[in-house]
Amino acid sequence: MAAAGAAPADTARTAPAAVAPMVDVTAEAAIAAALKDHPGMVESLDRDGNIWHVDVITKDGKGHAELQVDAATGAVTRQNLDTNENAGEHKDLLAAEVTAEEAAKAAVAAVAAHSGQVRTVEWDSRDDGRAAAWHVEVRDADGKTWDTSVDATTGKVTTQSDSGNDSGNDSGNSPDNDNG
User: Fold this and answer.
1) pLDDT at residue 98, rounded to an integer
2) What's the farthest any 2 CA atoms get from each other in the chain?
């Protein structure tokens, strides 16, 4: 009977271990999952709650997939798939030497000393004559959110600003704010 009395205590001790911990899928892992499901070039990535929204352009520029990646499981769901895109609209993205994942890594390294989390990545082909760039939003370990611009050719982080700063100073638009 002593063994029967010991079993409930053992069960009580091990019960919490049976609950699987929540996995938080990183931006890099969301990109990898999206590209595995729909190969091409990521055009944008955005986290909304427990869902990563990822837009992927096919390598020929004619296809566009809107995907969702579950941030807890990494499961990919296709929301929309268009195979009739104008390839010319995506030529700058397809020619970019820096991918969305590389831009995300560069932004984190520049603003958060490798401990930040990417929240958004967005392609900007720019119609104003300036070089194409990736806009990357990073939240650092202190909870501050940084907006960065990563050159699509060199990977250089050319601007950064703390969007969590409520002082009214918009340092992201200053041409003197070159942190590369």
Assistant:
1) 97
2) 83
